[in-house]
């Protein structure tokens, strides 16, 4: 236990808290009669409204707006971002990237060309294969580097190695 001074301080603090609570309770009881009848009736209406809502229970959430009527197979060469977003595995940002890539580089024409979009790899392409189609021909690419040309490039020797 603490020192005698600490005990006295704890007793004093407990007495102040007890008396403060008692005074507040006494004031709350005596003020009950001072409430105007209009305020009392407003409080009663509010309590009844809350109680009736509690009796009904929680209301069911409103259903989300139904998805737009989108065909089972979507043509990625002409579809909008909202239509592309309905494909399982493609979210809003990926749908926007697909549309942006198609607008800047031309139609895809095939699943292989679709993989040029960042975020679409072989796994996702295989997963969405049955739900997409392509109606347009892809734009011929003249800037594409084939593997044979890339392998013929000479690499610079690492620093420090001199070939004299």
What overall form do the CA principal axes indicate?
Answer: elongated
Q: What is the CATH architecture assignment of the domain at 74-141? A: Orthogonal Bundle
Strand order of the largest sheet: 1-2
Given the helix and strand composition, which structural class is it?
mainly alpha
Order of helices and strands: HHEHHHHEH
Radius of gyration (CA) equals 37 Å
Q: Approximately how much beta-strand content do the residues carry?
A: under 5%
Distance between the termini: 89 Å
Helix content: 40-55%
* Annotated CATH homologous superfamily of the domain at 74-141: Photosystem II 12 kDa extrinsic protein
What would your notes on this structure say?
With 164 residues, this protein is mainly alpha-helical. The chain has a domain at 74-141: Photosystem II 12 kDa extrinsic protein (DNA polymerase, domain 1), CATH 1.10.150. The chain is 51% helix and 2% strand. It has seven helices and two strands; from the N terminus they run H-H-E-H-H-H-H-E-H. The protein has helices spanning 4-31, 37-56, 81-85, 92-105, 111-114, 122-128, 147-152, and strands at residues 74-75, 132-133. The chain has a two-stranded parallel sheet. It is elongated and about 90 Å long.
């Amino acid at each position: 236990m603490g020192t005698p001074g600490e005990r006295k301080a704890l007793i004093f603090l407990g007495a102040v808290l007890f008396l403060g609570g008692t005074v507040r309770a006494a004031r709350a009881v005596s003020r009950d009669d001072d409430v105007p009848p209009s305020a009392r009736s407003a409080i009663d209406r509010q309590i009844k409204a809350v109680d009736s809502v509690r009796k009904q229970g929680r209301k069911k959430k409103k259903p989300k707006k139904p998805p737009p009527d989108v065909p089972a197979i979507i043509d990625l060469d002409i579809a909008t971002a909202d239509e592309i977003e309905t494909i399982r595995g493609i979210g809003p940002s990926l749908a926007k990237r697909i549309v942006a890539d198609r607008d800047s580089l031309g139609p895809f024409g095939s699943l292989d060309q679709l993989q040029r979009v960042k975020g679409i790899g072989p796994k996702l392409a295989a997963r969405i294969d049955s739900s997409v189609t392509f109606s347009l021909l892809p734009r011929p690419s003249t800037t594409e580097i084939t593997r044979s040309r890339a392998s013929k490039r000479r690499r610079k020797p690492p620093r420090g190695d001199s070939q004299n």
